[in-house]
Amino acid sequence: MSDTHSTGPFIAAIDQGTTSSRCIVFDQDGRIVSVDQKEHEQILPKPGWVEHDAAEIWTNVQLVVSGALDKAGITRSDVRALGITNQRETTLLWDKATGQPVHNALVWQDTRTDALCRELGRNVGQDRFRRETGLPLASYFAGPKIRWLLDNVDGLRERAERGELLFGTMDSWVIWNLTGGVDGGVHVTDVTNASRTMLMNLQTMEWDPKICASMGVPMEVLPEIRSSAEVYGEARGELAGVPVASALGDQQAALFGQTCYSPGEAKSTYGTGTFLLMNTGEEAVNSYNGLLTTVGYRIGNQKPVYALEGSIAVTGSLVQWMRDQMGLINSAAEIETLASSVEDNGGAYFVPAFSGLFAPYWRSDARGVIAGLTRYVTKAHLARAVLEATAWQTREIVDAMQKDSRVELSSVRVDGGMTSNNLLMQTISDFLDAPVVRPLVAETTCLGAAYAAGLAVGFWPDTDALRANWKRAAEWTPRLDVETREREYNNWLKAVQRTMGWIEEEN
Amino acid sequence: MARSIQSLERAAAVLRLLAGGERRLGLSDMASALGLAKGTTHGLIRTLQQEGFVEQDGNTGKYTLGAELLRLGNSYLDVHELRARALVWTDDLARSSGESVYLGVLHQQGVLIVHHVFRPDDSRQVLEVGAMQPLHSTALGKVLCAYDPVAHSEAFDEARGAFTDRTVTGAEQFESVLEATRARGWASDVEETWEGLASVAAPVHDRRRMPVGAVGITGAVERVCEEADTLRPRVVAAVRDCARAVSRDLGSGLSAPARA
């Protein structure tokens, strides 16, 4: 980037993501000084199975750290602390003595634990552990993935019970290796990552022995649960002596980087899918509207801050579908050009329930629908309906959050690739009837990890100082009249009803 | 009737041979189909290859139509693509300059603002995406007129109105402003459009070195200028850095010298 940033010291943040590992160096104003990134292989042994080679990931993490330091022209002595953010829920077991993974990591998207999750629900169903963990039994979460590995890989259960194996999500794996690995590496995870295992009790912030027993996970393999912002240990090797001082799951890191530190503040990350998180303060709010209850962050010894989470499965990927499967556009950005060529949706509504409806409906028997078609409808109207689908689904999640928390959302802070779509951002503001705000630094995930690490070592004094760093780059305010909004919302809800029950019960 | 140029006719014949479906041909097949010597045919193909109109398969050595031909018919850069590519760089410019950033393209007789980043001072600002600015008085407009012949002719066809005492309206004076812009690689507007405001802008080029837009900052004269209405060199450098970064992202200037 440009060479006008301040001189050190700096904070480095590692983002161990689903498709790549990145390292970004930030200065005291929260400005990006340098970035390095390396993709890793997506291993797809069977339909629905997704694995990563954790050894490759650790090699890449080391490469991007040196790469980012080189590009910034700095050395480890200029780095005050190192923060970690990571793809959530991806599950790894490794040998404590050799440091070698005993199997590829099972990635969050991997659905091989579907049947196991149904079995674990017994007669109660998918909410069996919701009260303690805030989560429904679903294939994303780490606990059932550990169980699958212990059940299906020869000898693992015995080795786990003998205390020879360590479990970790990617934060634990990276921190253990950074701090020395077999030679004294610390085996820890943070509260946000632990809250995605289905094994942690949200009230005590400890592993829940009963759930671990029900799930068949020996507690010997589990890391120690720590806060999101504290010094876990000192790095060895390339970064020798640098404190490793934060860990946050990627969506929680974005919430932290967007400086959503007060109850009711929310962020929405628009990528392939979309993740909305709202800070609910020191109260873990139970959801009766299909949202997840999760830990937002915990700074050192302070009380944990909770969040409600809702996700939209298909957003950026719907635009990709319009490009790759339908051939209606040549690039993702063109969806805006096409959609802007008409004034409205021409009566068409697109509900992209490609693999069922998620929050707040949770209907696996639903499939996608384009409703309201007449001869008048053109591809431009469909492009508009595509963008409106993302905006309406955002509205549905925000409505659910307001119902569960009884907190009114004042504005939504957005990040992610789709924030470059001006029409989409305006439409979201119109449909929510609330301002939509984009911050100046789009890399909120890495920034959140850097902020937490900087707080832990006193690089920044408190969250107020971080708020001062947050700058508004753009703001969209609602322009739609209430009658149109309510009429359109009603039409959308009718279209949603038409997706349900498409898949008939197979028994 | 004007005499036609033989080598152009032959080049057209090569393209027609390869046109349609997934056609791949070797050198000797093409030479015999065209009734030309292999050496002559090879010369034609090599030139077309340099221009990107023909491509050679690395394994079989056979020739196919090049991707450049497809781009010719579809060469217009989508403004939303331009915004998506410019996003990180314009954010960085807003942060380093402390001023609001605008990205503009030629649209009809003016500059269409396709991207706007707020001045990072937490004051209330309104998003100006979709607004139009005049070609002849703004820094963005002058850059477009200096580099894009279509913008140039639009500005000279239209009446150039005066917005302030400082607006340059005369044809000759305007032409010399554009010459100066090309010579130094950036344009300015010191209270020529809005009293109290000054702007700096630089051109964005695509991979074929075509001018596709202009990026710049606008701010209060006393912040953007030093004494005697000279633009602050630091601001100018930041704007030019940003324009080059966006151009690089669009694939321009792969062999151009590194930024100053």
From TrEMBL, chain A:
Enzyme class: transferase
Residue sites binding sn-glycerol 3-phosphate per the record: T18, R88, E89, Y140, D250
The reaction(s) this protein catalyses: glycerol + ATP = sn-glycerol 3-phosphate + ADP + H(+)
Residues binding glycerol, per UniProt: R88, E89, Y140, D250, Q251
UniProt xrefs under Gene3D superfamilies: 3.30.420.40
Transmembrane regions: none
Record-linked InterPro entries: ATPase_NBD, Carb_kinase_FGGY, Carb_kinase_FGGY_CS, FGGY_C, FGGY_N, Glycerol_kin
MF annotations from Gene Ontology: ATP binding; glycerol kinase activity
Domain Carbohydrate kinase FGGY N-terminal: 11-257
Signal peptide: none
Entry superkingdom: Bacteria
Inhibition and activation profile: Inhibited by fructose 1,6-bisphosphate (FBP).
A Gene Ontology biological process term: glycerol catabolic process
EC nos: 2.7.1.30
Binding site for ADP: T18, R22, T272, G316, G417, N421
Similarity comment text for this entry: Belongs to the FGGY kinase family.
Matches recorded under PANTHER family: GLYCEROL KINASE, SUGAR KINASE
Name of this chain's protein: Glycerol kinase
Organism the protein comes from: Streptomyces oceani
Gene: glpK
Automatic annotation (TrEMBL), chain B:
Keyword Lyase carried by entry: no
A GO biological-process term: negative regulation of DNA-templated transcription
SMART domains: HTH_ICLR (SM00346)
PROSITE patterns: HTH_ICLR, ICLR_ED
Xref: Pfam families: HTH_IclR (PF09339), IclR_C (PF01614)
Gene Ontology MF term list: DNA binding; DNA-binding transcription factor activity
Domain HTH iclR-type: residue ranges: 5-67
Gene3D superfamilies noted in UniProt: 3.30.450.40, Winged helix-like DNA-binding domain superfamily/Winged helix DNA-binding domain
Superkingdom of origin: Bacteria
Keyword terms of this UniProt record: Activator, DNA-binding, Glycerol metabolism, Transcription, Transcription regulation
IclR-ED domain sequence ranges: 68-252
Known function: May be an activator protein for the gylABX operon.
Protein name: Glycerol operon regulatory protein
Source species: Streptomyces oceani
UniProt lineage: Bacteria, Bacillati, Actinomycetota, Actinomycetes, Kitasatosporales
